[in-house]
Each structure stands twice: as structure tokens, then as C-alpha cells.
Write a structure and sequence with these properties.
By secondary structure, the chain is an alpha/beta fold. It contains 23 helices and 18 strands. Zinc ion (ZN) binds next to loops.
């Protein structure tokens, strides 16, 4: 390497790109007078890494390829295992030619390393031509290419075969789309966002509710990727000026994944969002969702009723749909006619008649609900009540012998009452139909690998009052598994409100929300934040996280909590690995 450096420095001096003083200065700064001089020159700003690489390419008599604007061909990562690419510092940049007569142009940091070239020839089993790339840029390219491809260390031994199912297409665009989908599945993402701006194509995954930027293909691949996705989802290829929705299924590691695709034109091009849909087998029981034992008992009782209404409330992304599907799964027996109206149908359930809302052909929630009631259902799940008409028909259905399950967009369980009133449902109809209301949130779960006992800040202790007394909390200190955040995954926090006579009186009297809340508490209702604090004591989350996500309503809320209500034993242990969808 030292001799090598001398050649490079001599060439740079000869070309006048470097002064003798700069070289002297660098030699003094270099740890060893014979090596590291080039690094010192770069550090001093006397030359750029690109200049060094250019001169080395001249000396080695191989072409120089600038990776600055290079578009990765993802199909090539499948042909060289990651450890090989890393140890040889080499990456096939292009592979051209007919099958059987292909030639790989391989970017290398040191193209004179003939042993490495031989090894590559053996791995690729085709002719290899070498070019020189700037080592730092090459390292970063290798890192990005394999990060995008989802080809991890562990599968490197199996090489190309293990990767073949995700990379069925030979074309770069097909491969790039497959890589993005495969990586999203492997990282447990719920959504993929792919959107261009003036200069960049942004790829982001939603993982555990957070939208995280990812290394993705370049802007020049945008059009091709959108076209490819439209083909997969059977959308109109010629149309790029209006929004389009579709669905497709792809297979990854032998597992079928359903994807809902939405494309919307923006000023800088078509924006793509894909939702990866959970499979029905992922739906388990209420206890596995983390619903407290009392709440599970209430839900079991309510779902045994022949008619009435169960509402699940919470903002978008709080896991309402998963709770509704858990109810449907429990009720899905041959003796019951279970029908659903959904927008969109997220999980297919055997035996259940699922109807997709199509507003453009008049198949609204209300319209579909009217039709469904003529199909003699026992149980009707209405994805969401968001207008007067749907609310009215749903309440009527609950009053006329059907068990109705639905969701409402409110902050807490008590908030469902004024919302139904706003939709024009009279108090007597609410009292006669609503059996129970669930409210829920998803909070970040403390990372199991770095959890350790922790005392929350005094202000937080004060915030939660008596419920937080006595300690027993944990927090994550940060590790590789949780990317130093201290949290990994999410856990549901719930409140289940059953309408008792106190509540019914308050509803009958058209009581405002604070009074409805008081009536609920008199009946022993445990608010969501209390379940949150109980979950903290089970080592599942932190008071800081509960305070961030859930509001505590007023001083009276704290005063009304009996000390004996604050026992971890009232919560059931949530299962692990349950995927919660919004
Ligand atoms: Zn951790």
C-alpha cells in the first residue's frame, strides 16, 4: 500500500494537482511516514477522494466509475452474497449480454487484487471486467444495495437461492419493487410510503406507528416503479392525473401478503402508499390483545347478547380494526350469519360475508347496511360510523334483533355518547341499543433487551396521582434491538365501559360529557390511563409514554380512583407478537 501511495502522490505532483508543501505537511501528520499519507492529504483538503481514485485508476489502467449518481441494479445483489461483496470490496455494477455469455462489470476498490477477481468469477460464474471505484463510495453502495435487498448476514450462506423468491423478476425495476416489498415485510412494516419531490424519491416504512425513512431507489426509478405497481394492482397505466386504488398479492418466503395500493398525483409526481394487510390467522383473543381481565369479561358477556350494539372508539391507528376483527372471529360460528361492511376489507375471514364499500357506485356504509339487513344477518360489523344516516340505521338494526359492532372516532369511551347524539340518535335509542363501549390506544412497548428498573420524574408521578405511587416501573436504556430508543413494538391500552343504570340516567338527562364521565366512574369504570399505568407496572410501557398518548381528565379523575383499583392483577398479560392494525 505504501508503494502504491508513492505512485499516486508522484502522479498527483506531476499533474500539478498537489503541491510539494502539502505532501510534506501530510507526511508529518500521517501516523506512519510511509502510509496513511493519502488519508492525511484528504483530511487537509489538499485533494479529494475522487481525485485519488481517478489517479489510481490511471495507474492501474482500468476505467474509473463515479458512484455519485449511480443507480443500483438490485438484481445484482442476489448474485453475490453480502459477506463476499464486503470482504472483497466489490460489487457488480452492470451485467450485460445474452444468458450464457454474460459479462459483469464489477466495481472494486482495488482492481489489481487478482485473487479477489478470481473469487468473484467463481461466485458469479460469468466473465468479469473490473473498474475502479472510490472506496468510501463503494462501501456505502454495498451497504445500501444489501439493505434495500433485505439480504441479511444470516442468509448469506444460502446465497442466491434463498433470495430467489423475492427477486423473481430480472429487470431492475421489478427487482427494486420486490426488494422494497420484501424488506417492508421483514421489518414488520404496516405501510410503505413512496413519494417523489423535486430531487429525491423518498421511501418510508411505518413500523410500530412511526414513519421511518429508508434507503430506497433513486428518483429516476420512480416512474418505472409506479408503472410496475399499477400493473400488479390492475390499475389504469395511462392514467396518472387522478387517484387510483387497487390491491395485489405477493409472495415472500413462501408467505402470501396482501397489499392495498393507493396512488395519488402530487405536484412532483405520483405518490404511492401501500398498506400491508395482516392475515386472519394473526387475530387471536381479547386477552392476547392486552384487554384487562374485567374488560374481557364484559366483552364476553356483551357478545353473548342476541342484539344490541358494541362500539370501539379511538383515533386512526389505535388498533380499533383489530379489536373488531377479534369480536367477529369470536362470533364466527356456523349457527350465526355474520356480515360485515368495511372500507376497505382488511382481513378476509372464512364464512363471514364481507362487503366492501364503493362510494362511487352508491355502495356507502348506509346503503350497504340497508341491503345487508335484508340478508337476515345475526351479527353485523360496520367498519365505522361516520355519518347520521349510518348511525341511525345501525341503532335501528341493534334495536330490531341484530348484534351490531362498529367503531367511532372519539377520544374516549364516554365520548361515544355525545357523538351518537350529534348523529341524531335520541337518548332512549342510545340507552336501548348500546351495550358497551371500548376505547383504546397503542403505546410503545419497553424494549425487553434493555429494560431496567426506573423511577419516573416527580412531575409524572404527580400527574398520575395515587395510581403511580409505590414505584415498580421500568424503562429501556437503549440497545441495538430498539435502535437506542428504549422501545420496541407496541401494546394496546384499553377501557371498557358497560352502560349501567347510572349511565342510562345521565344519558336520558342529556348530561354533558363531564357528567357522563362522573356517572361512569361511580359505576366503577377504570379509565384507559389506569390500564396504562397497570401495564407500566407489568414492565410493558412507561408513565412518560402513557402521559404522551393518553389524557387524564381533570383532578376529579384522580380523586375518584380508589387505591385498590390500582392493582396489576386486574390486567391480563398481553400476548407477544400480535400485529395490531389501525
Ligand atoms: Zn433496547
Amino acid at each position: 500500500m505504501a508503494e502504491h501511495e508513492d505512485f499516486i502522490i508522484a502522479a498527483l505532483l506531476e499533474e500539478g494537482r498537489l503541491s510539494a508543501e502539502a505532501v510534506d505537511k501530510a507526511r508529518r501528520a500521517a501516523p506512519d511516514k510511509r502510509s496513511g499519507v493519502c488519508d492525511a492529504l484528504v483530511e487537509q483538503g489538499a485533494v479529494t477522494r475522487r481525485d485519488l481514485a481517478l489517479v489510481r485508476a490511471q495507474i492501474c489502467e482500468v476505467p474509473f466509475v463515479d458512484l455519485e449518481q449511480f443507480q443500483i441494479d438490485f438484481a445484482n445483489t442476489a448474485r453475490v452474497p453480502k459477506p463476499t461483496a464486503e470482504s472483497l470490496q466489490a460489487m457488480p455494477l452492470f451485467i450485460v449480454g445474452a444468458p450464457g455469455a454474460e459479462v459483469a462489470t464489477v466495481g472494486m476498490a482495488n482492481p489489481l487484487d487478482l485473487r479477489a477477481v478470481d473469487q468473484l468469477r467463481r461466485v458469479l460464474r460469468i466473465e468479469v471486467e473490473t473498474v475502479l471505484c472510490e472506496p468510501t463510495a463503494l462501501r456505502s453502495l454495498i451497504e445500501r444495495a444489501y439493505a434495500m435487498s433485505g439480504q441479511g448476514e444470516t442468509r448469506a450462506g444460502a446465497g442466491a437461492e434463498a433470495f430467489a423468491d423475492a427477486t423473481t423478476g430480472r429487470e431492475p425495476i421489478v427487482a427494486a419493487v420486490n426488494q422494497v416489498l420484501a424488506q417492508a415485510v421483514e421489518r414488520g412494516a404496516s405501510d410503505i410510503h413512496l413519494g417523489p419531490d423535486e430531487t429525491t424519491l423518498h421511501l418510508r416504512f411505518r413500523i410500530d406507528g412511526e414513519l421511518l425513512p429508508q434507503q430506497g431507489p433513486g428518483l429516476s426509478a420512480h416512474l418505472g416503479i409506479v408503472q410496475r405497481l399499477k400493473v400488479m394492482a390492475n390499475l389504469d397505466l395511462t392514467q396518472s392525473r387522478r387517484p387510483q386504488d387497487g390491491k395485489f398479492r405477493f409472495s415472500h418466503n413462501g408467505r402470501a401478503v396482501d397489499v392495498r395500493l393507493s396512488v395519488i398525483p402530487t405536484v412532483s409526481g405520483e405518490n404511492v402508499v401501500m398498506r400491508l394487510l395482516t392475515s386472519g390467522s394473526a387475530i387471536r383473543g381479547f386477552a392476547e390483545l392486552g384487554i384487562p381481565a374485567d374488560g374481557v369479561a364484559t366483552l364476553d358477556r356483551v357478545l353473548d347478547e342476541p342484539h344490541g350494539m358494541l362500539l370501539v372508539t379511538g383515533p386512526t391507528g389505535s388498533g380499533k380494526t383489530t379489536t373488531l376483527y377479534t369480536c367477529v372471529k369470536k362470533l364466527n360460528q356456523p349457527g350465526l350469519n355474520v356480515m360485515t361492511i368495511e372500507d376497505p376489507v382488511e382481513i378476509r375471514m372464512p364464512l363471514v360475508r364481507q362487503v366492501q364499500v364503493h362510494t362511487e357506485i352508491g355502495m356507502t356504509f348506509a346503503g350497504a347496511l340497508r341491503s345487508i339487513l335484508r340478508q337476515d344477518p345475526d351479527v353485523v360489523m360496520v367498519g365505522e360510523i361516520r355519518d347520521d344516516e349510518t348511525a341511525r340505521i345501525a341503532v335501528q338494526a341493534a334495536l330490531t334483533g341484530h348484534l351490531v359492532l362498529s367503531s367511532l372516532h372519539t377520544n374516549d369511551a364516554c365520548g361515544a355518547i355525545p357523538r351518537l347524539r350529534d348523529f341524531g340518535c335520541p337518548p332512549f335509542a342510545i340507552n336501548a341499543s348500546v351495550l358497551a363501549i371500548v376505547a383504546q390506544r397503542l403505546v410503545r412497548r419497553v424494549c425487553r433487551d434493555c429494560a431496567k428498573p426506573d423511577q419516573p420524574a416527580p412531575s409524572l408521578m404527580k400527574h398520575f396521582g395515587a395510581a403511580a405511587a409505590g414505584g415498580g416501573f421500568v424503562s429501556g436504556t437503549g440497545c441495538a434491538r430498539c435502535a437506542s430508543s428504549g422501545y420496541a413494538g407496541r401494546v394496546g391500552v384499553y377501557e371498557v365501559l358497560e352502560l349501567d343504570s347510572n349511565m342510562q340516567t345521565a344519558i336520558e338527562n342529556n348530561a354533558p360529557l363531564p357528567q357522563i364521565r362522573q356517572a361512569a366512574r361511580r359505576g366503577g369504570f377504570a379509565p384507559m390511563w389506569l390500564d396504562g399505568i397497570n401495564k407500566c407496572r407489568m414492565g410493558l410501557s412507561t408513565p412518560a409514554e402513557i402521559a404522551r398518548v393518553i389524557s387524564v381528565h381533570g383532578e376529579d379523575a384522580l380523586a375518584a380512583i380508589e387505591p385498590d383499583a390500582v392493582t396489576p392483577s386486574t390486567s391480563s398479560q398481553p400476548g407477544t407478537g400480535v400485529r395490531l392494525s389501525a
